[in-house]
């Protein structure tokens, strides 16, 4: 495999048995090359091809470019000659298998599609090489190999946790990225798995979730057919017996044995020879030129047991053994330099002095993660999660895996920093001190988060994905180019220790604020202000934190300029990375909420420029800035552009390995799709996010309550009121279980329940819910504006038009400082104001309000957006009252067509029907007028509006003599 092909590895078809796909028949001649489009560009689907990077019997892999999201992707295109349904089933199985997984050590799938009669799979583009290529590129220590295998094992364990097994794990299906991250790929043989189920039975596969049986859960193996690569297959798989997660464990151990000892554990040139070697139980001895500890070999051999019951209980159990062996007998080292002055519990484990006893430099220190992420802290986190989560298992596993991964990366970063000086000789001792100091700050910030997690409550658990996403970026300490060089740590031990305590307090304050514990965060700010510092990087953070404190308490007018001043001070001292972080914080807080659109736009653009200036690959701040820009565009009613930003946030988080956060961020994509009227796409995104929240955070998490709330609002928007009630009831039950009935989150859900009651005509219930929201007095101004506007609608329905106008005025006063003048939300409010003015007889004023609303919606959304139905109805009614029946009919017919296209507001539709009937009657079309009036009568009656139905009856009685020339009622 050449170097370019190694950037994305596929199964080598020559390793598969000849009968892998019996029954395949060649189709017409196919060159394997897509045809150019009308622009002469070679594409697969919507993706322009950069180059071919691999080809096998089943198809071709291309490096392509995703123009929409500005990223490279790998496209796996199924050879069109492979026409059997089983081949396509395997290909689609790979897509579904990967779609179920969300883990940094598993290749990410983006989409499956068809191109020129061939299926394709769009996947994460990995700049790296296969395990085999990585092993031959340079001499690798046994420790380095185990580190790679630990990453692979985590990926397989994630698959097993999702109810899947791989069934074809081998060196070519393991990629080592240029970023050091390991990914497992090629899930073409993946299956659903249960502890006792067979993967190869056609009729009675045991599935984890029998209610969600999809293509992935249907058997792919035919009688007498073995799928996989024999050299790494377990005996039960070779013999066609049931397979489970221990089958993957065997393959992982076979790969590990070959990587460490240079020979496959059960060599043979045929399937029969390999099977015989396995059944004999004789493992090839191999050569140990790496000094592999006996404990490592024993752990791997244990996983190669012929009987699955004699292997490790799980891949996680195997990984635990390998991690323990990797730690080995640790020797203490004398601490000097930075490590000495920053304290043993936090100092890096790679100490800088000459060894006091024989042994390699850069050895581990027992105290490296003590008190930060060790067994006592892990136990405290589990206990807190058990108290704070209704179903702690999923979210605890997710949090522990994330913290484990960060801690392992931190240890590896310390090792790389040490080796760059003492082993590779490419870095000065002074630079090592700076990198170690940088990593020390990162570890202090990490410790602040683990300390919080050890005292978790439901609110913190709901915020855990964001807290984990904001763990310190270890890439900031990765090289001399990224470490702040101008201010090395002081040599004086007391000063250095004080600086360390300052950064620790800083990290704690921000973690507390991110968790919503503002009183505790304020106390940390006070402590930090008293401490003070003349060390410029810390002094600037103390200055910034004073401004951030104002932001926590909602004072943006003073807080944002204060943090910006700190950012400018950092730039003046050439502390560009600090400045970028501070500008990003300002942009994220201001976007869409400050009420100063032009300044908000500038803040986001400026923060992006600052982050780009730092030039760090896979910078997690870019995810936050995509989200911030999306919020800004959403607040301005620019939903299409906001959709693009939210999609970019998902893609960037995925690229950065923040796969769980990426899944949860899809809720923003769903909201924008709903705003744009793309309901089918929105439904898919909402359900995907809901499934991710349930999987990773548990069925009782507050994050799931938020998504249920969104689903309830979305169902109401579509007119599915029964489904809306179900989702909102679920959301409220979760929130009440966590906080009781008097809580901000419950108030927010009650606001949505009020809207649903109003929409379905349950007016008394709606009024009670909205009045409770106003009485609670919690939440942002937007909530109170929603409640005032809804009460205005209720007063209108009650015939109390002055009170209706007063309520709308309260809502307008709350919304105007926050939203752009032509924002669609303000447009609807102007429409409601017009309706109340019309009811009071001020039709000229009403026409002006309606027209303002219509023009804003057409400009910001589209000429056929459903939100136009309301102001079109109102303008038509006012024109009718002013005697312009023809213009009135045009507006009303346009409004009625929108209601037919998007059912969901039956009382509004009835109003339009009756008004259109009156317009038709004024123009002499009595038959059409009668038909529309009868439809309106039916709608009013169905929703208990007896008075309005009676008014239509009276009008219909008067209409009959009008047909012979008598009076026709025309008042609106």
From TrEMBL:
Q: Where is this region: Disordered?
A: 1-38
What is the originating organism of this protein? Enhygromyxa salina
Q: Which InterPro entries match?
A: Kinase-like_dom_sf, Prot_kinase_dom, Protein_kinase_ATP_BS, Ser/Thr_kinase_AS, TPR-like_helical_dom_sf, TPR_rpt
Domain Protein kinase, first and last residues per copy: 47-326
EC annotation from Swiss-Prot or TrEMBL = 2.7.11.1
Q: Which domain of life is it from?
A: Bacteria
Q: What is the name attached to this protein's record?
A: Serine/threonine-protein kinase PrkC
Instruction: Give the GO molecular function terms.
Output: ATP binding; protein serine/threonine kinase activity
Keyword Phosphoprotein among UniProt keywords: no
Q: Where is the composition biased (Polar residues)?
A: 1-10
Q: Which PROSITE patterns match?
A: PROTEIN_KINASE_ATP, PROTEIN_KINASE_DOM, PROTEIN_KINASE_ST
Name the residues that bind ATP: 76
Sorted keywords for this record are: ATP-binding, Kinase, Nucleotide-binding, Transferase
């Amino acid at each position: 495999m050449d170097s370019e092909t190694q950037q994305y590895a596929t199964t080598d078809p020559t390793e598969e048995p000849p009968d892998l796909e019996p029954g395949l028949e060649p189709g017409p001649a196919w060159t394997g090359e897509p045809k150019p489009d009308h622009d002469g560009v070679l594409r697969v689907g919507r993706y322009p091809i950069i180059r071919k990077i691999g080809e096998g019997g089943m198809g071709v892999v291309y490096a392509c470019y995703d123009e929409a999201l500005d990223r490279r992707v790998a496209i796996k295109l199924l050879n069109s000659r492979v026409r059997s349904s089983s081949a396509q089933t395997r290909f689609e199985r790979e897509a579904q298998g990967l779609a179920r997984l969300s883990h940094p050590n598993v290749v990410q799938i983006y989409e499956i599609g068809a191109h020129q009669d061939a299926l394709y799979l769009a996947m994460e583009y990995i700049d790296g090489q296969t395990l085999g290529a990585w092993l031959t590129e340079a001499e690798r220590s046994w420790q380095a190999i185990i580190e790679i295998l630990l990453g692979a094992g985590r990926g397989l364990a994630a698959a097993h946790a999702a109810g899947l097994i791989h069934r074809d794990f081998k060196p070519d299906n393991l990629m080592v990225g240029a970023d050091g991250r390991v990914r497992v790929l090629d899930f073409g043989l993946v299956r659903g798995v249960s502890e006792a189920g067979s993967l190869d039975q056609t009729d009675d596969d045991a599935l984890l979730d029998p209610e969600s049986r999809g293509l992935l859960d249907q058997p792919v193996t035919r009688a007498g057919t073995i799928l996989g690569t024999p050299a790494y297959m377990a005996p039960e798989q070779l013999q066609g017996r049931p397979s489970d997660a221990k089958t993957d464990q065997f393959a992982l151990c076979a790969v590990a044995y070959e990587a460490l000892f240079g020979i496959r554990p059960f060599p043979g040139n045929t399937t029969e020879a390999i099977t015989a070697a396995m059944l004999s139980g004789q493992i090839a001895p191999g050569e140990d030129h790496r000094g592999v500890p006996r404990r490592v070999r024993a752990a791997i051999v244990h996983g190669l047991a012929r009987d699955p019951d004699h292997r490790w209980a799980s891949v996680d159990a195997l990984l635990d053994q390998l991690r323990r062996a990797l730690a080995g007998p640790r020797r203490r080292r004398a601490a000097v330099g930075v490590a000495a002055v920053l304290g043993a519990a936090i100092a890096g484990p790679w100490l800088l002095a000459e060894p006091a006893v024989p042994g390699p430099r850069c050895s581990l220190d027992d105290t490296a993660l003590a008190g930060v992420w060790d067994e006592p802290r892990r136990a405290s986190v589990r206990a807190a999660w058990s108290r704070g989560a209704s179903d702690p298992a999923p979210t605890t596993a997710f949090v522990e895996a994330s913290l484990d991964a960060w801690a392992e990366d931190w240890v590896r970063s310390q090792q790389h920093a040490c080796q760059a000086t003492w082993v590779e000789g490419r870095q000065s001792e002074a630079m090592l001190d700076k990198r170690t100091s940088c990593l020390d700050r990162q570890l202090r910030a990490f410790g602040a988060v683990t300390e919080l997690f050890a005292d978790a409550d439901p609110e913190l658990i709901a915020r855990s994905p964001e807290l984990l996403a904001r763990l310190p970026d270890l890439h900031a300490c990765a090289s001399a180019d990224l470490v702040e060089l101008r201010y090395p740590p002081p040599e004086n031990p007391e000063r250095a220790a004080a600086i360390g305590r300052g950064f620790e307090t800083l990290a704690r304050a921000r973690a507390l604020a991110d968790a919503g514990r503002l009183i505790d965060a304020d106390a940390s700010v006070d402590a930090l202000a008293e401490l003070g510092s003349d060390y410029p990087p810390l002094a600037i953070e103390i200055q910034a934190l004073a401004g951030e404190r104002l932001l926590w308490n909602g004072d943006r007018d003073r807080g944002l300029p204060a943090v910006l001043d700190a950012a400018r001070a950092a730039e003046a001292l050439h502390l560009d990375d600090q400045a970028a972080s501070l500008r990003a914080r300002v942009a994220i807080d201001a976007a869409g909420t400050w009420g100063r659109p032009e300044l908000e736009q500038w803040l986001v653009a400026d923060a992006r420029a600052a982050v780009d200036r730092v030039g760090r690959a896979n910078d997690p701040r870019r995810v936050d800035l995509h989200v911030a820009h999306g919020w800004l565009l959403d607040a301005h009613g620019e939903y299409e552009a906001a959709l693009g930003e939210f999609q970019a946030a998902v893609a960037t988080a995925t690229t950065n390995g923040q796969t769980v956060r990426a899944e949860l961020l899809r809720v923003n994509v769903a909201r924008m799709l709903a705003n744009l009227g793309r309901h089918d796409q929105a439904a898919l995104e909402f359900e995907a996010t809901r499934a991710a929240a349930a999987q990773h955070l548990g069925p009782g998490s507050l994050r799931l309550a938020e998504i249920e709330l969104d689903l309830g609002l979305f169902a109401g928007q579509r007119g599915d009121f029964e489904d809306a009630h179900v989702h909102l009831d679920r959301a409220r039950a979760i929130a009440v279980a966590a906080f009781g009935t008097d809580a901000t989150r419950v108030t927010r859900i009650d606001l949505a329940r009020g809207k649903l009651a109003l929409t379905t005509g349950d007016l008394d219930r709606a009024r009670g819910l909205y009045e409770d929201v106003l009485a609670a007095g919690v939440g942002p101004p937007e909530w109170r504006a929603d409640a005032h506007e809804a009460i205005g609608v209720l007063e209108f329905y009650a015939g109390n038009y002055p009170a209706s106008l007063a309520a709308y005025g309260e809502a307008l006063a709350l919304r105007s400082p926050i939203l752009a003048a032509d924002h669609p939300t303000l447009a609807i409010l102007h429409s409601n104001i017009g309706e109340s003015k019309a009811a009071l007889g001020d039709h000229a004023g009403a026409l002006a309000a309606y027209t303002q609303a219509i023009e804003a919606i057409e400009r910001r959304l589209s000429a056929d957006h459903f939100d136009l139905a309301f102001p079109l109805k109102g303008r038509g009614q006012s024109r009718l009252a002013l005697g312009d029946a023809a213009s009135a009919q045009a507006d009303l017919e346009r409004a009625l067509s929108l209601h037919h296209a998007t059912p969901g507001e039956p009382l509004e539709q009835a109003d339009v029907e009756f008004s259109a009937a009156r317009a038709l009657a004024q123009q002499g079309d009595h038959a059409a007028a009668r038909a529309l009036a009868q439809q309106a009568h039916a709608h009013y009656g169905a929703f208990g509006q007896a008075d309005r139905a009676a008014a239509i009856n009276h009008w219909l009685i008067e209409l009959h003599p009008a047909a012979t020339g008598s009076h026709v009622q025309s008042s609106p």
